[in-house]
Specification:
Length: 439
Amino acid sequence: MSTKKRTKPKRSGSPTHKRPAASSATAPTELTFDRIGKPEIDRILREQTGMPLATVLERSSVQAVQAFIDDLEAEDDAVTAVRELEAELGIEQGVEDLPELEPEQEIRLLRCDMAQERQIAEVDKRLLAICREVMVDLERRAVRAEKDLQQAQRKVEQAETQAGRHERRAEDRVAEAQELRGKLDNAELEITSLREALEAAENRGEQLATKLGETPDVVAADEASVEAVEQLKAQLAEREALLLDAHAEHERLELALEEARRRVAQLHREVESTGDDEASEEEELPAVETVLEAVQAASERCKHLVFSERAFETAADSPFWRPDMVLQDFIKLDQVAEAYLRPEGIGQPVGQFAQDLGLDWRSGVGEVWYGIHPNDYHFPYEGETLRVAEHVRVANGSGAQRCARIYCAFHPGSDQDGDLPRGVYVGPVGRKLPDSTTG
């Protein structure tokens, strides 16, 4: 009989697959393995695709992976069949020279080898399909990532352009304010000189009045002085009216300048947050119809602020027409509270930190008002009385419908028993408390 050498295909992944003990309760979407365990499949995929099982499952369909596992188990069956036939025919493993076999035996061995080769080809075909799915998925992800990057770049460019535009507007406001300050100084100097001239004219009029009956010329001179005094008074009244208008315009420009600075700071923060991580978008806030609803929503979302009963009572009394602005400022104020609670501190004044977040921050209202309106500027919390000083100017329109404030107290805390912990305590919300502007 023939003594030809036997050449069998060698597979780095063919093997001795053994199924580990599996739990009886498995999720419906989880793959099941009859004889091949996850570690063995992971090893085979790493060797032949360069990817672990977890990555293949993530980037290809479950059906393709399941089909690959089925074919791999079929290949395992084919390998087992060849080894069993070799043992039956007396062929030792690892020996290349075949013993003398009958024609039927050689045909059986050849068929087993062909079946094993077919199963190996099926496994390779499944592996190729998995690799193609992974490559297609990677290409799609790359395209999406490129689109996301381009969109983020466009947003950054738009934000930078808008920030530059607001910076230029702020510079124009500064120049206009400086020009107006110069005009104010000149107007004040002119008013001072007019007042001095008026006083001199009045003194002159008094001197002439004592000599009224002496000569006709003195009477004529007195009438001329009176006329000059009247002219000076008219000029003075006109200059004072212009000064009032200038003061009003100056105040308007100051408010516009402050708003522009706040807008520039906000745009800078948006540019930085967009450049760092475009995915970190702000959480959408719920719609609120009243200031009370805004305070209730803020008390649920703001984990670093402490809300007193006074906050809810005053909010219920506020007719402010934009409660969403109140909720937005509460979200920013919660960041201030979080920074205030840091053991290492904020590293800058609280007011500056709040303004950098875009809040219209105000500190102090004057000691006199604490005594005049103690019930307004003090509120209780857990047996202690807190005094408000810092507050956020949400809106500064005319009337309670267009004006809103958030008053709070920064309590330093202490180690004494019974003292309130360190934190930011929210007091009156809504209506503006009485001060020098309200009387």
